[in-house]
Design brief:
Blueprint (H helix, E strand, L loop, with lengths): L4 E5 L2 E3 L2 E3 L1 E5 L2 H7 L7 E6 L13 E3 L6 H7 L4 E3 L21 E6 L8 H9 L6 E4 L11 H17 L4 E2 L6 H9 L1 E5 L9 H8 L4 E4 L4 H4 L7 E4 L3 H13 L6 H8 L2 H19 L23 H13 L2
Parallel strand pairs: 4-5, 5-6, 6-7, 8-9, 8-11, 9-10, 11-12, 12-13
Antiparallel strand pairs: 1-4, 2-3
Helix pairs in contact: 3-8, 6-9
Length: 325
């Protein structure tokens, strides 16, 4: 996995005391090794964003994707504050909301192009519903040990050719600007996720916030299937036939779902962010300073600070230098 991070608060000095900033990262240990004095100036928040249990020893706060690992995480890391929220729980429900616009698509899928997203499953299910119209797009991941942009571009072309060959009615626009995603989600009756194991999908949470139910494969694991219930969507067996049947069912019963009401009552940034702020206040009180972290805001995304571009480590080093007593 790429080392990705978001710096949501810079350190500052008040009355001769360094009040720590906050970095959210998926690989806190690696980051601490690269910048040895990092924890003198920052609290580290571990966003797993993937399957399995949280593992970073240097994390001060752990955001848990898979709640089946919650108690084990608490036992293994007794010094850390463990929260029952992950990055997808920080979805901005003010940005993602219902719009009174026509539903021109039966289903939407927003997914990057690695193979584990199971793009072919989506296409083959759509081909079984030739009278229905779908939209599918996604970004390319940065090149790393696991994924390669060139191979992803090849896969995208193959998937588009497969859709044409099977006469599946799918629109394949390019990457959409973030400001356009809410509008595009609102043009569909449902979101469709076909991934294998990963973390709590932000796409899924954005759909639910826009009051769009979501279909999720039942084998995707507890982190990915989290928040899917009779009010928010439906689980399906990962076959084209079962997905097509689930699409028909959800379309016929749209009135029985209330995903936005569920999100507003259980998750979303207005639940997750106060929990994170409270955890940081507890750490600050322990360490003898008064910062309340009311100024922080985070939508669960990496805010463009992706390891390998050079920007992330430069930001961190500059922050440390500025606050160095």
């Amino acid at each position: 996995m790429e080392l990705s991070l978001a710096m949501i608060a810079e350190p500052r000095k008040r009355n001769g005391i360094v009040e720590k900033g906050v970095i959210v990262a998926n690989q806190c240990d690696r980051l601490s090794k690269i910048v040895p004095h990092l924890k003198d100036y920052f609290y580290l928040v571990e966003r797993r964003g993937w399957l399995w249990m949280n593992s970073e020893k240097t994390a001060d706060v752990k955001l848990v994707d898979d709640l089946t690992t919650l108690e084990e995480t608490k036992r293994k890391f007794p010094e850390a504050i463990v929260l029952e929220f992950s990055n997808g729980d920080f979805v901005d429900t003010d940005l993602f909301h219902p719009l009174n616009i026509p539903k021109i698509y039966t289903g939407i899928q927003i997914a990057a192009w690695p193979a584990f997203k199971r793009h072919e499953l989506f296409v083959r299910a759509a081909a079984l519903l030739p009278q229905e119209r779908f939209i599918k797009f996604g970004h390319f991941w940065q090149k790393s040990r696991w994924f390669d942009r060139n191979s992803e571009a090849v896969r995208r072309r193959k998937i588009i050719r497969l859709a044409h060959r099977l006469h599946a009615s799918i629109d394949f626009p390019g990457e959409a600007d973030a400001s356009e995603v809410n509008r595009l989600v609102n043009t569909a009756k449902m979101g469709i996720l076909t991934s294998e194991h990963e973390g709590l999908s932000r796409f899924k949470m954005e759909c639910l916030s826009a009051d769009i139910p979501v279909l999720v494969p039942e084998d995707a694991g507890p982190a990915t299937t989290r928040h899917i219930n009779e009010k928010t969507g439906m689980l399906f067996k990962p076959t084209p036939e079962d997905l097509a049947e689930a699409i028909r069912y959800v379309e016929d019963h749209l009135g029985s779902f209330s995903p936005r009401a569920y999100v507003l009552g259980h998750t979303g940034v207005h639940h997750a962010l106060p929990a994170l702020k409270n955890a940081l206040r507890m750490l600050a009180k322990r360490d003898g300073f008064q910062r309340d972290y009311e100024e922080i805001s985070w939508n669960g995304r990496n805010e463009g600070l992706i390891w390998g571009r050079g920007k992330a480590i430069a930001e961190v080093k500059n922050a440390v230098v500025r606050c160095n007593p």
